[in-house]
Design goal:
Number of helices: 10
Shape: elongated
Helix content: 40-55%
Oligomer: single chain
CATH architecture of the largest domain: 3-Layer(aba) Sandwich
Largest sheet: 6 strands, mixed
Strand content: 15-25%
Distance between the termini: 33 Å
Structural class: alpha/beta
Radius of gyration: 34 Å
CATH topology of the largest domain: Rossmann fold
CATH superfamily of the largest domain: von Willebrand factor, type A domain
Number of domains: 2
Strand order of the largest sheet: 4-3-2-5-6-9
CATH class of the largest domain: Alpha Beta
Order of helices and strands: HHHEEHEEHHEHEEEHEHEH
Number of strands: 10
């Protein structure tokens, strides 16, 4: 692809010069053969260098061809860091996160991975943090500063219940509030945004008992649809294993806290996001790294004319230098 392809018409001129050079060589040879006196021929047309006498002309014509390509503005797809993007990291801090099926515990592993995620994001990405259990709280509004997010992650504490829908609503509201504030100082419009939701269990509140909690007006599926309508996809991470348990009271039988892949997958599908699973801290880090690559970089067409320009200029200098060295004149 070229940004200014009409410059490629100069190839007609380059081709004409190449043809002209060949015709000039043939004419010179024909005129030389007309001399029948070999002694006089040796004086008029002494022995010339071999094939390398054509090097100056070939170098100059090739350099003109390369410079023509440079003028046309060749482009290529490249991954470049985003200068503007908003991400809200949503972390489940319900009691199920105390399970130790992920060492040393689900919460501790999630905290380490979340801080790594914050460090890996490109500097231009605004990162916010929402924590949720029975309610949701915006701990850090989107910002390019990473330390406030990491300090808030270190301070996460467990609580009862799982209000996944409230967490999504809070995250989307945080994105919209930040985008509105940013739109007032920027003419480029709101930046692209995404919510990254990490949870290990099924939603428990709100639950009126009339149906699936996710379908409640403040449920996770309703929130996912609202996120999709707002243009904020929710990428979900199901973190943990199916054999995780916790002990709510000393002496009581352990309570199963198996991960709920189905609902988290549905949230991602309804909102236009992606669904991931992670059963270890290493897998969670890998998921965050993949999301960081997707969020922090974008594919753009960039100008790649500089190498062509440099190559053409170097060949031009080679042609001029060879012409002066071999014939003490320009080709």
């Amino acid at each position: 692809m070229f940004s200014a392809p009409w410059w490629l018409l100069l190839f007609v001129v380059v081709a004409a010069l190449a043809v002209g050079y060949v015709l000039l060589l043939r004419r010179r040879r024909r005129d030389t053969i007309r001399f029948t006196n070999l002694e006089l021929l040796d004086r008029v047309a002494p022995r010339r260098p071999g094939w390398y006498r054509h090097l100056p002309a070939v170098a100059l014509i090739t350099s003109l061809a390369i410079l023509t390509i440079a003028l046309a503005g060749p482009q290529a797809e490249a991954r470049v860091p985003r200068n503007r993007a908003t991400v809200v990291l949503v972390i489940d801090v319900s009691l199920s996160m105390m399970a130790t099926d992920v060492e040393p515990s689900r919460l501790a592993a999630a905290q380490v991975a979340a801080k790594d995620f914050a460090d890996q994001l490109t500097p231009g990405v605004n990162l916010g943090l929402v924590a949720f259990a029975g309610t949701a709280a915006v701990l850090v509004s989107p910002t390019v500063e990473r330390e406030p997010v990491k300090r808030a992650v270190d301070g996460l504490r467990l609580s009862e219940s799982t209000a996944t829908g409230e967490a999504i609503f809070a995250a989307v509201q945080s994105v919209e509030t930040f985008s509105q504030a940013l739109s007032g100082v920027s003419e480029e419009g709101p930046p692209p945004a995404r919510v990254v939701l990490m949870s290990d269990g099924k939603q428990t509140v709100p639950n009126s008992g009339d149906g699936a909690p996710e379908e409640e007006p403040r449920g996770s599926y309703t929130a996912a649809r609202e996120a999709q309508a707002a243009g904020v996809p929710v990428s979900t991470i199901s973190f943990g294993t199916r054999y995780g348990t916790i002990e709510l009271e000393p002496g009581q039988a352990p309570t199963s806290v198996a991960v709920d892949d189905e609902s988290l997958r549905t949230i991602a599908e309804l909102s236009g996001g992606q669904f991931f699973t992670a059963a270890t801290e290493a897998e969670l880090r890998q998921v965050y790294a993949e999301l960081g690559e997707q969020i922090g970089y974008e594919t753009r067409r960039v100008d790649v004319s500089r190498p062509w320009l440099a190559g053409g200029a170097l060949l031009l200098m080679v042609g001029v230098g060879a012409g002066l060295a071999l014939g003490r004149r320009l080709p």
